[in-house]
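Researcher: Can you fold this with adenosine-5'-triphosphate in place?
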Amino acid sequence: MVEAIRLDRVSLWRRTQEEFSYDLKRTLLTFLEGKYRQPAKKLILDNIDLVIKPGEKIGIIGPNGSGKSTLLKLICGILKPTSGSVKVKGNIAPLIELGAGFDSELSVLDNIIFYGVMLGFSRQEMRKRSDLILKFAELEDYALAPVKSLSSGMTARLGFAIATDVQPDILILDEVLSVGDESFKNKCKQRMEEFWQDHITILLVSHTMDLIGKSCDKVIWLEKGKIQLIGQADEVIDSYLNSVTNKV
Ligand SMILES: Nc1ncnc2c1ncn2[C@@H]1O[C@H](COP(=O)(O)OP(=O)(O)OP(=O)(O)O)[C@@H](O)[C@H]1O
């Protein structure tokens, strides 16, 4: 069987307190006082087996902190699993943390080229594509300006324009369907609709059940890092909503 994405027994542990990175002084003091303890580790994804076929449109739902974004980051290769294996066939356009990979000192044009190279395209090809990317992002006048001079909405527009220009095999979306101002949002929606018609594999994380129900064939419900249920969109959404109302 052809597979676009395959996860075998994937688990991920992360440190729950990241004190060392944000409060170095306090960490050193507690260390000197002999009170330092290793930050606790938490199991974020627990033994996930998953097969996604090319062209499937998959929704991922579940409560806050259940591991949805983490699962996407593993599939994109931003995070590595502690155990198990993640296999992906084809190039991925991750529309998560738009613009997080930009170098703010470099120009918009240089960032377009670097970002594309990071996604596996050649410099030459990215140079050719840059005009269309700048046009879509409506940033033609900023080509030579450093990214730090853009507003946050403009930066997100640039990230969206690059990631969706490269015509990916797999598109990863973490509730970033609305980027920028109203007119740009409409452009994003249109581009997304084209992707949906296409044979691209799509993974969409959202808390908006209507959106998931309308746009996905299959849904994964995550609960505390485990797959609680996977199946036809309507059935999984109903079970999830029932479980939430029963808790209240
Ligand atoms: N950088 C990090 N370091 C350590 N733990 C993290 C980090 N980011 C997230 N976590 C933890 O991983 C778990 C899953 O987080 P994740 O962001 O994947 O959840 P989610 O299902 O996407 O939540 P939400 O619906 O709130 O976006 C949470 O317990 C969270 O505290």
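Model: Folded with adenosine-5'-triphosphate in place. The radius of gyration is 20 Å.
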